[in-house]
Amino acid sequence: MSAAPAAPLTRRALLRSAFTAAVLAGTAAALAPVLRARRPRQTLTPAPLAEETYRGRHLAVDQAGVRIDGRPLHVMRRADGSYLSGINHFQSYPTPLELARAAVDELGTAQLAPAAPHHG
């Protein structure tokens, strides 16, 4: 048995191959950012600027903010450079660590609520 002779490459077959290659390349280019975004990112946890145990609670202050027992405390910076939080928004404190200590005093044995997801 002999193999059938190869059909000559026609203009139509060449254009179809080129079009298919272009569609595949365009689809890959469009999907690349989506696939890249799904990959887990390696994030480095910033080193705490201040960390201590106060009244049995772990306080940490870093570039990301203030955490009490690992839960974030919403902190706002005032125009005069002091800090306040939602725990006691009537008094401001000179440093985030002092603010965290005051929040622990106010909370007593209660825990901070878990952080709500941000929208937008």
Number of strands: 6
Strand content: 15-25%
Structural class determined from secondary elements? alpha+beta
Q: Work out the helicity level.
A: 25-40%
Form type? rod-shaped
Largest sheet: 4 strands, antiparallel
Gap from first CA to last CA: 69 Å
Low-pLDDT residue intervals, each spanning 5 or more residues: none
Mean pLDDT: 84
Gyration radius from CA atoms, angstroms: 30 Å
List the helices and strands in order.
HEEEEEEH
Strand line-up across the major sheet: 1-2-3-4
Number of helices: 2
Give a description of the structure.
The protein has 2 helices and 6 strands. By secondary structure, the chain is α+β, with helices and mostly antiparallel strands. The strands form 2 sheets. A 4-stranded antiparallel sheet has the order 1-2-3-4, with helices on one face. The protein has a two-stranded antiparallel ribbon with strand order 5-6. A hairpin with a 2-residue loop joins strand 3 (65-68) and strand 4 (71-73). It is rod-shaped and about 90 Å long. The relative contact order is 0.10. The model has no long low-confidence stretch (mean pLDDT 84).
List key phrases describing it.
120 residues; alpha+beta; four-stranded antiparallel β-sheet; two-stranded antiparallel ribbon; 6 strands; 33% helix; 20% strand; rod-shaped
Provide a compact summary of the structure.
With 120 residues, this protein is α+β, with helices and mostly antiparallel strands.
